[in-house]
């Protein structure tokens, strides 16, 4: 009696899981050719046979765009204009939303007024500087008079025409006038510096308010596609509010979840076969590009990213996919049906007319085949499990 098996090239393993949906088995027929192998089987059992064996790990996940980010508001206001809709193609720096904010307008006007006032205070006809400059002129005049008077009293004293006290009083007035002029000059210099600082600060404040005003005009950071819009015109918007979800429209990848028990087999560069219900008759090829080392404790899985290497699905955000990651492909290896294995590595065989349990060394395996590395040969008669 003959029993036929489809080779491992068309049925890939799902280690410690149930087999993928029917479409996966069909899809893998596109990837590799099926090989029908006839096992020698009689009433007592079958014998191991040589065939090609492909081992793969099942994964599920979703398709996401590259350069994905959430557009958020940086200002308070009311959404005045919504210039994009879901599915629209956008360019970098394209205007997406316009906010209306009376608060920002008032701040910008106040900053502009403060800048104009500080600039006027620094002009030559500034009342503030004019008063200080007048004080400096008065101090110069007083110093000049006191200097002349002090010199006159020095001459009189040398001629014994005045007292020592009068001379010292003239000297004191001269010293006070000189110190007063120095103080007035310092005051004028400090005031000019402060007015320059005020101009710089007010200009900076105006720039900040202008930038804040620009925050009411929200633009795209990438070339891509709008996947979702969260706000409509008339709604109140606050800083940090989400406005839209955007991302690359043509650069997409598959974000897959691999069971913890299979994760050790995954390596960057391994080929991946991907299928989705949206494209019932298509199989997409990809390769593993990144393996994340952090375990997701919610479903005991690891994240694996795969880039499409040929035809890609359309950029539907979050498109659900199922995949087989090819971890090994072996040519002509000794195999037995997985249904004949019990426990982890034991089979029943016929030996000297008796049914006997023995252990063997396993290699690669898929859903229905197991590689025999040692312990069995082509002459071994396997008995079915009872």
UniProtKB/TrEMBL annotation:
Main localization of the protein described in the UniProt heading: other
Keyword Membrane set for record: no
Stretches assigned to coiled coil: 129-198
Record's subcellular location: Cell envelope
Pfam families, per the entry: Beta-barrel_RND_2 (PF25954)
The CusB-like beta-barrel domain, residue ranges: 254-311
Keywords from the UniProt entry: Coiled coil
GO biological process terms held by the UniProt record: xenobiotic detoxification by transmembrane export across the plasma membrane
Name this polypeptide is given: HlyD family efflux transporter periplasmic adaptor subunit
Origin species: Fibrisoma montanum
Phylogenetic classification of the source organism: Bacteria, Pseudomonadati, Bacteroidota, Cytophagia, Cytophagales
């Amino acid at each position: 009696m003959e029993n036929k098996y489809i080779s491992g090239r068309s049925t890939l393993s799902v280690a410690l899981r149930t087999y993928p949906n029917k479409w996966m088995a069909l899809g893998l027929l596109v990837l590799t050719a099926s090989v029908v192998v006839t096992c020698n089987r009689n009433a007592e059992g079958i014998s191991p046979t040589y065939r090609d064996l492909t081992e793969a790990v099942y994964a599920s996940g979703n398709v996401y765009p590259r350069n994905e980010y959430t557009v958020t508001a940086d200002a308070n206001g009311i959404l005045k204009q919504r210039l994009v809709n879901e599915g629209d193609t956008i360019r970098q720096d394209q205007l997406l939303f316009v906010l209306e904010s009376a608060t920002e307008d008032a701040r910008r006007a106040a900053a502009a007024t403060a800048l104009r006032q500080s600039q006027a205070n620094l002009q030559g006809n500034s009342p503030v500087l004019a008063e200080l400059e007048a004080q400096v002129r008065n101090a110069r005049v007083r110093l000049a008079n006191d200097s002349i008077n002090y010199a006159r009293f020095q001459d009189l004293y040398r001629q014994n025409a005045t007292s020592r006290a009068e001379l010292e009083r003239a000297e004191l007035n001269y010293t006070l006038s000189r110190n007063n002029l120095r103080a007035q000059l310092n005051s004028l210099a400090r005031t000019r510096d402060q007015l320059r600082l005020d101009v710089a600060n007010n200009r900076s404040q105006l720039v900040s308010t202008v930038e804040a005003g620009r925050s009411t005009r929200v633009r795209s950071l990438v070339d891509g596609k709008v996947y979702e819009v969260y706000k409509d015109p008339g709604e109140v918007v606050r800083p940090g509010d989400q406005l839209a979800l955007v991302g690359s429209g043509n650069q997409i990848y598959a974000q897959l979840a691999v069971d913890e028990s299979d994760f050790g087999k995954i390596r960057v560069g391994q080929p991946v076969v991907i299928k989705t219900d949206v494209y019932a008759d298509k199989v997409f090829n990809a390769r593993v590009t990144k393996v994340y080392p952090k375990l997701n404790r919610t479903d005991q899985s690891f994240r694996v990213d795969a880039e499409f290497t040929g035809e890609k699905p359309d950029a539907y955000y979050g498109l659900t996919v199922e995949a087989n990651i090819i971890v090994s492909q072996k040519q002509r290896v000794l195999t037995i049906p997985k249904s004949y294995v019990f426990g982890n590595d034991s089979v029943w065989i016929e030996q000297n007319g008796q049914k006997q349990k023995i252990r063997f060394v396993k290699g690669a395996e898929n859903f229905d085949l197991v590689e025999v590395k040692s312990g069995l040969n082509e002459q071994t008669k396997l008995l079915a499990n009872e």
